[in-house]
Amino acid sequence: MKFQKPVSRESAEWLAFAAVVLLGCALSVFAVLSERNFILKNEHNRLEAQARIVDENLRRQLAGVRSALDSIRKAHLENSPGATGLSIQALRNAMPGVRALALLDKNGHILQSSDEMQDSHLDDADFLRSISKMRDAGTVYVSRPYENTPGTSNIKLSMKVESPPGDTPGVATAILNPAYFDVVMQSVIYAPDMWSSISQRDGFVVLFVPPSLRPGAAIPGLSVVPDDSRMVVQRTIDATQANLDKELVVAVSRSYQEISKPWIRLAIELASLWCVFVLIVGPSIWLLQVKRRSLSVLTEKRAKDAAENAERMELALAGARLGLWDQALPSGLLQVDERAASILGHVDGQPRTILNWRDEIHPDDLDNVVLAFDRHLSGETPRYEAEYRLRHVNGCWVWVQARGKIVERDRQGRPVRILGTRADISASKRHESEIQQLAFYDGLTGLPNRRLLMDRISRAVNLSHRNRQAGAIMFIDLDNFKDLNDTLGHDKGDLLLAQVAARLLEVTRKTDTVARLGGDEFVVLLEELGASDSSVSERAEQIGQNIVQRLSTPYLLSGHEVYSTPSVGVAMFGADTESIDDLMKQADLAMYEAKAAGRNALRLFSPQMQTQAAASVALERDLRGAIARNELHLHYQPIVDADRTMTGVEALVRWNHPRHGPVSPAEFIPLAEKSGLILQIGQWVMEQACEQIRLWGARPESRRLTVSVNISARQMRQPDFVGQVISVLSSSGANPFRLRFELTESMLFSDTEDVIEKMNDLKAMGVGFSLDDFGTGYSSLSYLKRLPLDQLKIDQSFIREALTHTSDATIAKAIVGLAHSLGMLVVAEGVETEAQHTFLAQSHCDSFQGYLYAPPCSAERITALLNTQGLDQVH
Ligand SMILES: Nc1nc2c(ncn2[C@@H]2O[C@H](COP(=O)(O)OP(=O)(O)OP(=O)(O)O)[C@@H](O)[C@H]2O)c(=O)[nH]1
Question: Which residue's CA is the closest to the ligand 1 atom numbered 14?
Fold first, then answer.
């Protein structure tokens, strides 16, 4: 862990600590030294006092001895030996420091003495020598110390005694009493380590206490204490002053070691104290600092965390574009920060205080906001949350999302402060509505799509259950819209769809729903049409007819006038409607009925329709096995020339249902188209026709007969259609030049190039082509000339009306002219009367087909007819 902060403070603490320790140590040293000095000085003074005691005693004794010796000397000089003897004894008795007194001649013979003299050796050589050296009569001569009992030093003090004239000079001698001095010196000893001594200047120790530690009888030098380890106080008895022949030194001493003990103890105590102080205070400071450092690190970390949290919070708020608000209760005084204020266009970067917060809220949203707010205040919700609009400074409304929570209550628990955030959700609201639009509305027309429609229908049906009001749904499908797309282009188709949507909205009520299911399918949901069934269907039919009529009015698409019609299927719903799916199917079925009825029509769903639908489903099911069960067969309708000679036939498929008998192609071909069975049936028809061509080809009367086969768009769109034809031709052995395919105009609109290519391939093999129902579709002359067509078949509608409507006659003639000019022949179909034949023949029509000449009949019949060429017999 890295501690950075209060380094200076810590250093200061360590400096202070060091200063205290140093100062303390210095003071301690000073105290110890002072103590030492005091002790030494004290000790010195004391030793001095003790030395003085010994010194004074000694001086007194010496003075006494001098006086005694002097008395003996004088007595001797006065020559009164008896008196001398008595006085010596008396003198000795008077002096406790003297053990014996004696008067000696120069040879050391005792002339007179005190009683104690018996054990004294006064005749030793040293002494005699010293007597001989005594020159001065007034001087007291001090002998060398000697021992007559081991361990006890004796000393003699002697004065020269001038004998009366003629007599031998002698000496008066006093032997000092060592016991006395011992007592004196013992009395000054106050410590076991203390020594006390009397010695001669030249180092001879006279007396030493304690005697056991006596360093030696004759130690050269002035001091009896040879080393520096002792404190010594000496007092010298000056030889001149005391009339001695040599100086005496009184010394008392003590061991420095002993003397120093108190201050050394003090020093040790103080040192220990400081050691303890250092050992306690130092680690304490260290611990304190470590703790403080970790505390400061913790505090720093907390502060950093708090700062980071605040920063994160700020970032989060900024990132989430959240503003803060703070509201006091019950005053309602609202304070918003600058971000919350900026949402409403206050860009001065200042917080705002709002007195009346309700004023800013959109009136439509206010109730919800207040409700949410009150629910939170009353404790019903854990937090307050609302989405609403606020007035922007520029006057528009801004969608915001507000969230908040009570953060403070009074003692009674009543909320006094609520804190929260505010976010601008205009963009997400916009996206929401865009998504809503995409999810529920059709992009092209803006109408509700299937999903929304289903929801509305479901709600409408539920409502009708409750209020017993019936409604209707209308399926609207534009007729042949594909053709319009194919001819005018998808863009125009789109324009038409948009206009259809607009028109539907025009003719319906606001409460109705107009939806686009997809493609050219629209649905109108009509609600609350009334209570009774009959009135409901009447009103629905009326509205439906309105719609048919309105949608059938020509459209103007970028300058092109376009005609379009709708097929409308209507289904009613009411209290007894159970399934919406069924309802939708019903409307769908009705719409298909309208288509089947020729388009541009309206059909109301009826239960019979359902039955019919079910029947057609059953029929379709039966159709699936019809080929295998041999129920299909071909009929051939003759095509004749102007002389009514049969030149060809059109193969027409027939179905003989085992139960229902013959089923009309108009009934089952659409079913086959719808179910895809047309491919199977178409293939079968082609095979049958080719087989017939082969058969007829073998007979001279029928060899030149062409057989026209209807080809459905689905068949033609098969990628291997040409291959299939080749295969059928080769397997049947039919002459391709006798095979003619009849195509419808509509199949040429899509994948035109592909169709042309296939036609060219087949044409190259000899297969002919005829364009069926010509004139009913949106034929484009530009591609008509590109198609390898042999024939145009004028639709029978023109033939039927040709004699009554001049326009149809004109169209029929125009078609003939057009075909001839493009090198094609013209076949008129549906010719039923002689008048029609005459008209068509006069119009230079090349071939004719119709009941006037022959109805569709079996191949055998055709063969028979050919044999006789008696078409009249057919009827
Ligand atoms: N322009 C345009 N065409 C569309 C759109 N959606 C689907 N279609 C076309 O609308 C046509 C719908 O045709 P259908 O309803 O099946 O057939 P139809 O030609 O109207 O014939 P009937 O309904 O039998 O009368 C198809 O060709 C689709 O390709 C669209 O959004 N815009």
Answer: 482
